[in-house]
Amino acid sequence: AGRAASVAEAEKTGLSLDSFKTTVVKRDEEKIHLRIELPGKETQKVFDAALTSLAKDAPPVPGFRRSKGGKTSNIPSSILLSMLGKSRVTKFILQEILSVTVGDFVKKENLKVNPEIATTQSEGDLESSFAPGSSFGFNVILELEKEPDTDDAIDVELSDSMDAPDVLQSDSEEPSEEEPASSS
């Protein structure tokens, strides 16, 4: 039970990663196993961007005024982190990293994949191994969506032909119900 994210979410975030390495570990007809590595400077950049993003939605912090225009004041990251909770911030960051890195790979390879992304490491393992400024890596399994085959078309035809006798059968029952009604 690893961390879950969605490929579709990658486009919603404003996060951009400049340097990360994606390696295909194993590939078959149904799944692609990836290893994604981020250098320390990228993890720090993501961490800072995530704190800034979360701070915008955070309630006012006592002792720190908001700037004019409702902009967030410059609150030290240690205070923000303790206020928001390290676990919450880390989960948000992991979600962003997963969505952006895997979304980038899917787009570059022009793949059709199941939108749900799952890591092989547990959520707890990922959280404990992530540290801003340190390199970070994780494994992902992508499930490929199957192209419509001729087998699928046959299944559709069979299901349509199975529906047809039901319609005929209901038509044949209706006149038998009407006969007693017309004779009385």
From TrEMBL:
Q: Which domain of life is it from?
A: Eukaryota
Question: Tell me, what is one Gene Ontology molecular-function annotation carried by this entry?
Answer: protein folding chaperone
GO terms for biological process?
'de novo' cotranslational protein folding; protein transport; protein unfolding
Q: Where is this region: Disordered?
A: 149-184
Which keywords does UniProt give here? Chaperone, Isomerase, Rotamase
Report whether Chaperone shows up as a keyword of the record: yes
Which protein family is named in the record?
Belongs to the FKBP-type PPIase family. Tig subfamily.
PANTHER family membership: OS01G0894700 PROTEIN (PTHR30560:SF4), TRIGGER FACTOR CHAPERONE AND PEPTIDYL-PROLYL CIS/TRANS ISOMERASE (PTHR30560)
> By what name is this protein known?
peptidylprolyl isomerase
**Taxonomic source organism:** Aegilops tauschii subsp. strangulata (Goatgrass)
What is the phylogenetic placement of the source species in the record?
A: Eukaryota, Viridiplantae, Streptophyta, Embryophyta, Tracheophyta
